[in-house]
């Protein structure tokens, strides 16, 4: 995406007035919605009337006085009395408690089960997701009313227990909603970026995933509450609730029994149920408008083009900072296993810049992700050797990997904007990993972040520190990410096409910055690129990849002076001619044309 295109979708500092409206606090947006305010007031009145029933009426909801049977409204009974002389107002007020408590129990149970299950399944996917999704489908397939009736038969006529069972029945709906939200946000590059910076899963879920899940869950809760109130009334209406208690459903039952003699008895419980349910439904709509009117990250991971593998590894070096030997990355696909990195070997020494070059789809990013331990769950990697500073990275636990990533091995991605969470200020995103890894106080982390912002060439560090990602340009965002990447003084930096998404004018500045920081801190640097100009500018050594394999490894000068492999020559020629390297390739084995990858 070009810089200008990105500005169109993300906004610039000048576009803040437009975004300010959207960024207003959800509560203030809700309170600006008249329907929402009316609903909130009505709900508050219903809840207060039920909670303070003893203060509003001295009558008992269950005591019957046969002399008062069918007493008209007024006098001793403000809303009249029912067929056995019980006070209708008292039954209405106390009955609200049963309905509201029942709805509350059902929603809480559904949330307690659905939210954690959806978070875990959506975040970790794999077998856990498969099992939980299967159970959810099973529960959803069972007819809800039958399950409720069977549970009443088993537990007995206890309204609250029945509503807890209803919560179990509603939980798969919550699970699916949360799982879908997590799955979509999990693919966001800023979540990858948080993982790369070494933040633990709990922190990532709290910071980046939960805020996204929150809004749909709140909306769904309001809807579920309405459904639960109706079902609870239905159960009481059928006479299956707790015996002897006043409830709106029991009042409806009583009214139906006397439908022909006293039809007006339907009015009070009918209105109470309709108003409560309609209010919850309208409130859910208003919540949706208020909560979902926030700018979400639109950018998704770029679709990866397809490519077929070929071969030629290179040697590993013993005093190297990073040593990779015979790295393979495979994906299980419907058509069988697909190898996207095949026998890659490379080394990086301290203070050395290694360019990983090749056309799109040649496996550069997959190699980088495998080194970082960041392949998606469906991807598998294995290597003859994968060591960092003499330490074997194979089989490292999640915690140990996290401790290494972002701290000793850092990553700069190719799409700066998508790697910043739009919901948080730049300062928060910079200080978070520093506080986690370096155990800095909030104040120390802030000072370090401001110094870093200044170091990476940002003219107004304070402003950028307090800005949201949409308020800065793409070039600035990349500088911010570079500042974040070097914030914990890593020994190895992996930069995946760090200038691709930037304006041509900014590209050179960002490369200069990377080179300066690399020299200043004597970092090893793996620069993933398909641009030989970039390689010539800053790389000491070059690894050329094609279709998942290394075809040539050489010092940069040597590679330019005498490229050995035909593919390297073709890439170099296309760079010199300023033409895209897209001539049909021949596989070494068959000589047949390879698939076009872009
Ligand atoms: N999740 C996945 N499942 C299956 N194949 C994948 C997956 N992700 C990537 N690939 C494949 O891996 C191969 C290498 O992709 P990779 O992203 O490493 O290429 P690249 O050289 O970095 O390209 P680019 O310069 O476009 O980023 C591609 O053929 C791609 O289709």
Question: What would you say about this model in short?
Answer:
The protein has 598 residues and is α/β, with parallel strands linked by helices.
Description:
With 598 residues, this protein is of the alpha/beta class. It has two domains: 3-10 and 20-291, MetI-like fold (Orthogonal Bundle); 322-576, Rossmann fold (3-Layer(aba) Sandwich), CATH 3.40.50.300. It contains 23 helices and eleven strands. It has helices spanning 3-10, 16-23, 26-31, 34-51, 53-56, 88-124, 126-141, 144-155, 159-186, 189-196, 201-237, 248-257, 267-291, 364-372, 398-404, 426-438, 442-455, 461-466, 474-486, 504-521, 532-538, 556-561, 566-576, and strands at residues 322-333, 336-348, 353-357, 379-382, 385-388, 391-392, 409-412, 492-496, 524-529, 541-546, 549-555. The strands form two sheets. The chain has a six-stranded mixed sheet, sandwiched between helices. Strands 1, 2, 4, 5 and 6 form a five-stranded antiparallel sheet that branches. Helix 7 (126-141) packs across helix 9 and helix 16 runs parallel beside helix 19 (474-486). Mean pLDDT is 80; it is low at 1-23, 294-317 and 578-598. The site of adenosine-5'-triphosphate has 19 residues, from strand 2 and helix 14.
């Amino acid at each position: 995406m070009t810089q200008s295109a990105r500005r169109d979708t993300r906004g610039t500092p000048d576009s803040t007035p437009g975004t300010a409206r959207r960024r207003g606090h959800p509560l203030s947006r809700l309170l600006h919605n008249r329907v929402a305010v009316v609903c909130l007031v009505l709900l508050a009145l219903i809840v207060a009337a039920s909670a303070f029933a003893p203060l509003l009426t001295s009558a008992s909801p269950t005591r019957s006085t046969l002399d008062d049977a069918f007493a008209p409204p007024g006098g001793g009974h403000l809303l009249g009395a029912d067929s056995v002389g019980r006070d209708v107002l008292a039954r209405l007020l106390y009955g609200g408690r049963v309905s509201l408590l029942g709805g509350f129990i059902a929603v809480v149970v559904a949330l307690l089960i659905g939210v954690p299950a959806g978070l875990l399944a959506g975040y970790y996917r794999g077998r856990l997701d498969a099992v939980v999704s299967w159970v959810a489908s099973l529960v959803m397939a069972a007819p809800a009313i039958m399950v409720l009736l069977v549970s009443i038969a088993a537990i007995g006529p206890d309204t609250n227990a029945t509503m807890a069972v209803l919560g179990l029945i509603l939980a798969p709906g919550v699970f699916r909603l949360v799982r879908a939200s997590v799955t979509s946000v999990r693919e966001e590059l800023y979540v990858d970026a948080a993982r790369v910076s070494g933040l633990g899963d709990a922190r990532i879920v709290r910071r980046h995933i939960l805020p996204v899940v929150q809004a749909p869950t709140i909306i769904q809760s309001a809807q579920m509450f309405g459904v639960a109130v109706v079902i609870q009334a239905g159960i009481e209406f059928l006479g299956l609730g707790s015996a002897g208690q006043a409830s709106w459903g029991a009042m409806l039952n009583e009214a139906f029994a006397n439908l022909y003699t006293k039809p007006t008895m339907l009015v009070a419980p009918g209105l109470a149920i309709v108003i409560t349910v309609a209010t919850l439904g309208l409130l859910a709509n208003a919540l949706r408008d208020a909560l979902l009117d926030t700018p979400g990250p639109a950018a998704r991971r770029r679709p990866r083009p397809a490519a077929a593998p070929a071969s030629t590894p290179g040697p590993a070096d013993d005093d190297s900072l990073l040593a990779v030997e015979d790295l393979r990355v495979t994906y299980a696909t419907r058509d069988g296993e697909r190898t996207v990195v095949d026998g890659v070997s490379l080394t990086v020494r301290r203070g050395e810049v290694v360019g990983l070059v090749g056309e799109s789809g040649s496996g550069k990013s997959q190699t980088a992700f495998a080194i970082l331990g960041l392949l998606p769950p469906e991807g598998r990697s294995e290597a003859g050797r994968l060591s960092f500073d003499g330490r074997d990275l194979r089989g490292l636990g999640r915690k140990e990997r996290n401790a290494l990533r972002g701290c000793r091995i850092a990553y700069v991605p190719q799409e700066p904007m998508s790697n910043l969470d739009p919901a948080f200020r730049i300062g928060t995103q910079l200080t978070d990993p520093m506080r986690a890894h370096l155990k800095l106080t909030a104040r120390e982390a802030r000072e370090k972040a401001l110094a870093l912002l200044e170091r990476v060439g940002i003219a107004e560090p304070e402003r950028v520190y307090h800005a949201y990602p949409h308020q800065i340009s793409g070039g600035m965002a990349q500088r911010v990410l570079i500042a974040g990447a070097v914030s914990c003084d890593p020994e190895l930096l992996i930069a995946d096409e760090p200038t691709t998404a930037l304006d041509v004018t900014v590209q050179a500045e960002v490369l200069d910055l990377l080179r300066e920081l690399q020299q200043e801190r004597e970092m090893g640097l793996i620069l993933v690129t398909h641009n030989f100009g970039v390689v010539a500018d800053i790389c000491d050594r070059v690894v050329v990849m094609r279709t998942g394999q290394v075809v040539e490894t050489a010092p940069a000068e040597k590679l330019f002076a005498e490229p050995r492999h035909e593919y390297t020559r073709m890439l170099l020629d296309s760079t010199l001619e300023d033409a895209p390297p897209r001539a049909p390739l021949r596989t070494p084995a068959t000589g047949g044309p390879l698939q076009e990858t872009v």
